[in-house]
Amino acid sequence: MGYLKSGKAVIRKEIRALQQLEKSLGDNFNNAAEAIANTNGNIIFLGLGKSGHVARKCAATFSSLGIPAFYMHAGDATHGDLGMVAKDDVCILISYSGKSKELLDILKPLEQIGAEMIAITGNPDSSLAKMCKIHLDIGVRTEADPLGLAPTSSSTATLVLGDALAISLMEKRGFKKEDFALRHPGGNLGKKLLLTVDKIAHTDDQIPIVHTDAKIHEALLTMSEKGLGMTGVVNDKNDLIGIITDGDIRRGLENSNQEIFNKTATYLMSKSPQKIPSNTLAITALEIMEKFSITSLFVTDLEDPNKLFGVVHIHDILKAEV
Known about the structure:
15 helices, 13 strands
C-alpha cells in the first residue's frame, strides 16, 4: 500500500472513531461535566504512556480555559504525589484498557481522600470503569493501525473527549476571549486580545500637529520632525479637524508647484480624520487601517472623546508583533 493511500485510510478510521464517540456520549458526559463544574477544587488528570500524554494535554486545555487543572503521573501518585490531591478535587483517570495497575492502585487512596473519580476508558467492563463513580466510554474498540496495537484512534478519541468536556464547561461559565487572553499574555494570541493602542501610541510632543493657519512648509517640517508621514490639523480650540499626509503634499506640488507653500494647512487637509478611543485593541486599529487604506489613526482620550490622546502608526502595531 502506498504512503498516501495508507495515510488516508488511517484518517478515515480515526474519523469513524470520532463519529462513534459522538454517538456514545450520553448522561455520563453530563454527570462528568456537572461534577467538574460543581467542584471547588482542582481537576487532576492521571495516566500512563500515551494516555499520560493525552492527560497532560487535557490538563493544559482546561487550565487555559480558566478551569484549574494539572497532570499527575499515575506512577508517581503512589510515591508521594497523592499529597497534592484534596477532598474537593476531581480526578480524571485515563486508561484505554481500564486495567492499568498504577491507576487501580490509587483508587482506594483517592476514595479515602474523598476526591471525585471519573474514568475514561475504551472498555466499559474494565475494573477502572466499574470502580469509578462516573465512566466515560470513548467507544473505540480497534485502533487505526493494521496490527490494532498502536494508540491511534483511542488516543485521538480521548483527546477530543477532553476537548468536548473543556469547551462545554467554558460555554457554561460564559468564558470570553478576554479571559482567554489573560491566560496567554506572552504569545501573539495574548497580544491580539490584550494590547490596546494606548500602550503603543505616540503621545504628548510626539504627536504631529499644526494649526489651521500654519503654512504648508510648517506642516511639512512637522511631518519630517515627527516621522509619521502625516500631521493633524487643529482649530483655535485645539479640536482635531483634519489631516495632511505626505501623499497630500506630493499631490499639491504636482497641482500647484511651489505656490502650494503659500497656502495654509486647510488648503490640503482632509476633513474628519479617522479616530479611535485609547482602549481600542491594536488588532482592531490594524483592521481599521486596512479597511480605509491608511497608515495612521488618531487616538482620543477615553474620558474626553474631544481630547487628543495620541496617534498610532501601522509600524507601531507591526513592531508589537500583533
